[in-house]
Amino acid sequence: MKRWSKMAKQFTRVGKDIAMAVKEGGPDPDANPRLRMVLQNAKAVNMPKDNIERAIKKASDKNNKENFDEVLFEGYAPHGVAVIIETATDNNNRTVANIRSYFTKVEGSLGKSGSVDYLFDRKCHFKIQADGIDLEELEFELIDFGVEEVFEDEAEEGAEYQGKVAMIYGGFTNFGTLQSELESRKIEIIESGFERIPQNYIALNEEQQEEVNKLLELIEEDDDVMEVYHNMK
Asked: Domains (ranges, CATH) in the chain?
């Protein structure tokens, strides 16, 4: 049951990503880099083709008034752990109230904009099919396009592609440049996106970790939440 619940949440989040990408750049992935990224990610989580097509059609409908705003929340969990929450919401008042209630329940504190964001570095990433690719050479060749790190990774269990895969990391603003270069080289992108990586981590004992995890679980169960980042070790 938990696996199906996780899958349903993944599909909901990808559906919102599709809606926002289509509203921003249109329904043609060839002309919409953001939509290309989202469709890769939809495939990576095994989202059915029918679901994807329905989401694109719904977002393209001029009579569809549904809009999602991307809203960032920042705060502190118990024991000084910094938390950043990325949401996509069609009702900001509801989302604010829900997120605030989660922090209150565990005696954390919801902060103002910028209160913890400076503790994280924003990066872009790409997971690629790497069979037959010299990763050291690729890293060297992509330096001029903003790459910072390339390393071999493991294919996810149950994923469609089970060959050699690699992760590519670069600065947040280098996403478009790296995406274009990988596509021009005909390198298959399995999934891509953005991350907030803590500059430092806080070490806690097991009991303290459980207190922080209570907050993280509450947040991650919220349908408006897209991603959650923290600096707990």
From this structure: 2-60 (1.10.10.200), 69-118+199-230 (3.30.70.980), 120-197 (3.30.70.980)
pLDDT of residue 63: 87
pLDDT digits (tens, 9 = 90+) for 143-167: 999 999 999 998 777 667 778 999 9
Average pLDDT score over residue span 22-27? 95
In this structure, which amino acid lies at residue 218? L
Structure tokens at 97: 């109230």
Give the number of C-alpha atoms closer than 13 A to the C-alpha of residue 4, restricted to the C-beta side: 1
Evaluate whether 103 touches 215 at the Cβ level (below 8 Å).
yes
DSSP strand pairing (69-76 vs 82-89) = antiparallel
Backbone angles phi, psi at 150, to 5 degrees: -135, 130
Burial of 156 (0-12, 13-18, 19+ CB in 10 A): middle
182 pLDDT exceeds 80?
yes
pLDDT score for 4? 55
DSSP readout, 187-214?
A: PPEEEEEEEEEESS-B---HHHHHHHHH
Give the tokens for residue 80. Answer: 């000084």
Helices 2-25 + 49-60 axis angle, to 10:
40
Tokens of 106: 């565990």
Helix or strand or coil: residue 230?
Answer: strand
Report CA-CA distances (Å) from 35 to 32, 186, 188, 194, 217: 5, 18, 16, 14, 29
Residue the block writes with tokens 């891509």 = 192
- 193 — phi, psi (to 5°)? 165, -155
